[in-house]
Amino acid sequence: MITKKEFIIILSVFATIAAFFAAVYLFSIKQSRFKQPTEPPSGIQPPLTDQNVPRTSTGVKIPETVYAYNGVVLDAGDGYISIKAASHNNYLTEDQVLKIGFNGQTKFVRYILPKAIPPDVKFIQGKEEQISSSQIQNGDKVEVYSQENIREALEFKADIIRVLEF
User: Fold this and answer.
1) Do 73 and 63 touch, CB atoms closer than 8 A?
2) Residue 52 banded pLDDT, cuts 50, 70, 90
3) What stretch of H or E contains 128?
4) In the chain, is it the N or the C terminus that has fewer CB atoms within a 10 Å radius of its CB?
């Protein structure tokens, strides 16, 4: 059993230790708040501020490189298709009409998703089949892929055009 005097001494020691740690914590917060930002190493660009970063209509930041868009075919011609690409599901600041060129190297694929999905299925497996450019029609939903960075490009050559069938 401890006496009242011993209890007061122990309590004072703990209060002093707690006050010391609180002072150190507050001092470190104050120092980090007023710390001058350091410059990045040479050759590395500082990140853009949020105000300068382009965003989609839903507020998603647009990355520096974009390799694919999706949309609905508006026109299918000889060596090109035009698609309406919505900004809410592409890396675009606003809806755009994109003109996608293709050549003999372009791969055309129809991706068929199952019409009904059983409740116990964990992964949806689609089926792919090769098609030709002449099988693309107005109103088809497509994904277009390029090996080049197509960010902000309104015309580009596609390496793969995938027609989505639901």
Assistant:
1) no
2) confident
3) strand 127-130
4) N
Per DSSP, what are the bridge partners of residue 98? 83
pLDDT reported for residue 8 = 87
One-letter identity of residue 130? Q
The answer to whether 79 touches 102, Cβ cutoff 8 Å, is: yes
Only one residue has tokens 């122990």, namely 10
Q: What are phi and psi of 53, to 5 degrees?
A: -85, 125
Side-chain-facing half-sphere of 120: CA atoms under 13 Å: 0
Judge whether residue 110 has pLDDT over 90.
yes
Q: Which of 119, 147, 13 is nearest to 156 (CA)?
A: 147
145 is written with which tokens?
A: 């892929």
Between 80 and 52, name the one with better pLDDT: 80
**Mean of the pLDDT values across residues 11-39?**
78
Hey, which CATH number is domain 68-165, 2.40.50.320, 3.40.190.10, 3.30.750.24, 2.20.25.10? 2.40.50.320
Count of H-run helices and E-run strands, the chain:
1, 8
Per-residue model confidence (pLDDT) at position 11: 81
